[in-house]
């Protein structure tokens, strides 16, 4: 077998093998059970609680959780606006980069607070090292917020009937200290030994072998790149993100970063099973997600390895695949694989330019974000998937003519309304945004880098990436202007917080209901049949809402190339 | 909400210390024991400093060329062309690069030109080319530098970087290291 394919298999299977024990560890963290890292983190966390005046043992109901979550996120937003708009005067700015404009700071701050990391600036010239450190802080806590939200869901389905769902601050802090920090430290250390810089000096000037004078941007890259993957954030230290040879210097670093972004979303699935003592149920979730993931990945890798037919037609040797926008050290296969991993989970870091992917590869990247629940981002992937489960439970219930039940709780009108709103919100945000940008060509078409169908895909991709809190882009789009900064900014907020509020509300409502023991008529949710049901719901929702838009973009482009 | 504001501000302050100060400091300290002290892979040649994993522009005919770049290998920035696969303007550009390549390498057949040497990388700073892209330039360099072809082929074979532990990923060659070695052959 080809070494490029073996490389992909090693990345996926290796991560999966580690995700299962790591999931068990996560379940222990949220369940306050003993773990190996207790001697280090117990005192640190104790000190944090003491200094912040927080009692981690105070139980919260779902509403208190949400208030706490939204309050602290608002504080991060205010601080972020302040830091980015004054970075020129703050310390650690050796390259003398200027302050951000208000609209760009608005977009950037929101984007990092909501774990999206859509970047309408380039790291080399757009932010100081101080701002990079601040953004890195947001990468920790925004991923922590997502994980904490998932932990609330965990709690809601462990107890038979309860209002007490743990303490938000405890979930948040532990997610950051015990899950994200250790992984980031390990990965950052591997990266510095592989040639990723970690320095606070400014740009370096060198004279190339051929005699050209060029500058080399550098900085505290390793610490940033590690958490950007572990927290499924994806924001690049440099403009070229994970394609930059400093962020991702070798095939080995590429494998490590792939592991970094995939491990937590995978482990969370198993953590749910361990925590709620329903391991078979988490295998059902894993099965459905993996099926969807493979259906997107396999064609993508194949198409990227096959290369651009229009370039093949020129009569050159096209056997390396679609190399435009790709790096030789990764090759077409690992790049195609990365482009789907980064879009199914909400990382959005890129190791190639997605704008230059083959038309249908681009479509698969879009579908991955449109569904946004095949693995999904840190914590939030499970929340999104939970909405689809509730819908599938309801439809199955109707089919057999019984009140739908899930985990021993009746699913009633109120929960269903919330689930429907959240399921429809995602297509609503994406399609309305795209329609508006297309309707006003001086805002939309004027900023495109490519003509025709592909240009439309650039607009569609930008809004899909915003609503899915992904952060990757068809980067040809000239997106640092008032229209893009503001419109995507609002979509980012709605696309983040409503899909957190909705599932937690449903989980909270269900948790407080009376527990009905399993009987003969109970719908079993941990079976293959139910898995197929969930998969069908996902396909129908995604296909029905997005197919017309996809036809106008990537599908039309594909057929125009034949 | 009110009762959450103060704890949230305090927790934010404490965690900033933890994740934006202590964590990067720890990584920085680890970097100090790494071979290049966290400054990137530095390569010193005849007293001149290069970064071995940041690609350089090689356009002179007596050097092995690197790939086209959207940022002209100026690492003050980075990025790709972001041209879509069906973009007519882009395809014309690729066709032009093929024509230029054939003009400067008259001994090469068109079907032997590998695609990476006529397409731009994602970062614009790709330090590598494929083995095929190095081999296809041998005839030109041999003629200009008056070095026999087998010597150049051996050079390429010596500097070829095999897949990771022989199993994972593609083979490749670092253009800067290749050209440094090329200069050294000439000097000896």
UniProtKB/TrEMBL annotation, chain A:
Subunit-level organization: The system is composed of three essential subunits: KdpA, KdpB and KdpC.
Family: Belongs to the KdpA family.
Transmembrane segment boundaries: 6-27, 66-85, 133-154, 175-193, 258-276, 283-302, 373-398, 418-440, 482-511, 532-556
UniProt GO MF annotations: P-type potassium transmembrane transporter activity; potassium ion binding
Gene that encodes the chain: kdpA
Membrane topology term: Multi-pass membrane protein
Keyword Disulfide bond: no
Subcellular location: Cell membrane
Domain of life according to the entry: Bacteria
Main subcellular location: membrane
InterPro entries: KdpA
Protein's recorded name: Potassium-transporting ATPase potassium-binding subunit
Cited Pfam families: KdpA (PF03814)
Keywords, alphabetical: Cell membrane, Ion transport, Membrane, Potassium, Potassium transport, Transmembrane, Transmembrane helix, Transport
Functional summary from the UniProt entry: Part of the high-affinity ATP-driven potassium transport (or Kdp) system, which catalyzes the hydrolysis of ATP coupled with the electrogenic transport of potassium into the cytoplasm. This subunit binds the extracellular potassium ions and delivers the ions to the membrane domain of KdpB through an intramembrane tunnel.
GO cellular component: plasma membrane
From TrEMBL, chain B:
Gene Ontology MF, one: ATP binding
Keyword Transport assigned: yes
Subcellular localization, as worded in the UniProt entry: Cell membrane
Primary localization: membrane
GO cellular component: plasma membrane
Keywords: ATP-binding, Cell membrane, Ion transport, Membrane, Nucleotide-binding, Potassium, Potassium transport, Transmembrane, Transmembrane helix, Transport
Membrane protein topology class: Single-pass membrane protein
Classification via InterPro entries: KdpC (IPR003820)
A Pfam family annotated for this UniProt entry: KdpC
Protein origin, superkingdom: Bacteria
Presence of keyword Electron transport: no
Function: Part of the high-affinity ATP-driven potassium transport (or Kdp) system, which catalyzes the hydrolysis of ATP coupled with the electrogenic transport of potassium into the cytoplasm. This subunit acts as a catalytic chaperone that increases the ATP-binding affinity of the ATP-hydrolyzing subunit KdpB by the formation of a transient KdpB/KdpC/ATP ternary complex.
Subunit-structure text: The system is composed of three essential subunits: KdpA, KdpB and KdpC.
Family assignment from sequence similarity: Belongs to the KdpC family.
Protein name as it appears in the record: Potassium-transporting ATPase KdpC subunit
Organism from which the protein derives: Rhinopithecimicrobium faecis
